[in-house]
Design goal:
Layout: H1 5-25, H2 45-58, H3 61-68, H4 76-102, H5 108-119, H6 130-157, H7 162-192, H8 194-207, H9 219-228, H10 234-249, H11 259-269
Helix pairs in contact: 1-4, 1-7, 2-4, 4-7, 6-7, 6-8, 6-10, 7-8
Length: 275
C-alpha cells in the first residue's frame, strides 16, 4: 500500500497522542509500584507455569522487533510505536520473571535454562506484509490483555498474591492501551484503503494464533495449562476479540463473509453470527 505524506502525518499524530498520554498517566516502575514484600509463595504450581509461559513468549522480543520494524522503517509513527511497545513489553517480561524468583516458584538456574531453551528457536512473521501484521496485532493485543486479566482472576481464586495481582493489573492496563492504539491505527488505514485493509483483516481472523507458544519445547503442555484454567479459549476469541474489534472498526461482518471463514467462526462460537 502506498503511504501518502498525509497518511504518514496522521499516523505520527496518532502515535504522539498515545505516547504523551502514556507519559502523563500510565508509566510505572517494576521496583516501586509492585508490593514485592507481599508475594504469596503458596500459589498452585500450574499458575506459575502459566506465568513462565508468558515470560517465555515475551522473551522473543528481539525477534518481534527485528522483523517488524524493517517493514515500517519509513513510517515514523509506526516504527517509533514499535520501539515504545518493545520497551513496555520487556518491562512486562521482567516483572513476571521477578515474581517467579521472589515467590520461590523458580530458581535462578531454572530461569537461565528457560532463556536458553527460548533462544534456541527464532520467531518469524506470520504475515509477510505490514498491513497483515497490523491486523494481527490489532487482535493479538486485545487477546493478550484478556490472558492477563483472566490469569489475575485465577490468582485471586487460588488465595491471592498482592504482588502478582498488581503486576498483572499494570500489565493488562498497558495491553489495553496497545490494543486501543493498534485498533485506531487500523481505522486510519480503513479510511485510506478499505478494501485492502478488510482483506488483510479477513485473512488474519481466519488464521489467528497467539504468538510463539507453539515454538516452546513443551508447547502442548503450556497450551493445555492455559486451556485447563480457561484463561483463553476459542470461544473467548470470537466473543471478546473478533466481535468487539470488527464492531468498533465499523466493519460489517458481510464484508468478511466467505464460506470457509464463516464455517470456522460459527464452529468456534457455537452460535449463528449473521449480522
Amino acid at each position: 500500500m502506498q503511504e501518502s505524506p498525509e497518511l504518514l502525518s496522521a499516523i505520527y499524530r496518532h502515535f504522539r497522542e498515545y505516547f504523551d498520554m502514556a507519559e502523563r498517566k500510565r508509566r510505572w516502575s517494576i521496583t516501586e509500584d509492585i508490593p514485592w514484600d507481599n508475594c504469596n509463595k503458596s500459589l498452585p504450581p500450574a499458575l506459575a507455569d502459566v506465568v513462565e509461559t508468558f515470560v517465555a513468549v515475551e522473551l522473543y522480543l528481539p525477534d518481534y522487533l527485528s522483523k517488524l520494524i524493517p517493514q515500517v522503517r519509513k513510517n515514523r509513527g509506526r516504527a517509533w510505536m514499535l520501539a515504545n511497545w518493545g520497551y513496555e513489553e520487556c518491562k512486562h517480561s521482567m516483572a513476571l520473571e521477578d515474581w517467579l524468583l521472589k515467590s520461590g516458584q523458580r530458581s535462578e538456574e531454572q530461569i537461565t535454562d528457560m532463556h536458553a531453551r527460548v533462544f534456541d528457536h527464532e520467531w518469524n512473521l506470520p504475515y509477510d506484509n505490514a498491513m497483515g501484521m497490523l491486523a494481527y496485532t490489532t487482535l493479538q493485543e486485545l487477546a493478550t490483555r484478556i490472558h492477563y486479566t483472566r490469569l489475575r482472576d485465577e490468582v485471586k481464586r487460588a488465595g491471592g498474591c498482592p504482588a502478582l495481582e498488581k503486576a498483572l493489573t499494570l500489565i493488562a492496563t498497558d495491553e489495553a492501551a496497545h490494543a486501543d492504539f493498534f485498533r485506531r491505527l487500523f481505522e486510519i488505514y480503513l479510511r485510506h484503503d478499505r478494501d485492502a485493509a478488510v482483506e488483510q483483516l479477513r485473512e488474519v481472523i481466519n488464521t489467528f494464533k497467539m504468538p510463539a507458544v507453539h515454538m516452546l519445547a513443551d508447547s502442548m503442555k503450556r497450551m493445555h495449562d492455559v486451556q485447563d484454567l480457561k484463561i483463553f479459549t476459542e470461544e473467548m476469541f470470537v466473543k471478546q476479540v473478533y466481535i468487539p474489534v470488527v464492531t468498533k472498526l465499523g466493519v460489517d461482518r458481510r464484508e468478511l463473509r466467505r464460506k470457509k471463514f464463516r464455517e470456522r467462526v460459527v464452529m468456534q462460537a457455537g452460535t449463528d453470527l449473521k449480522p
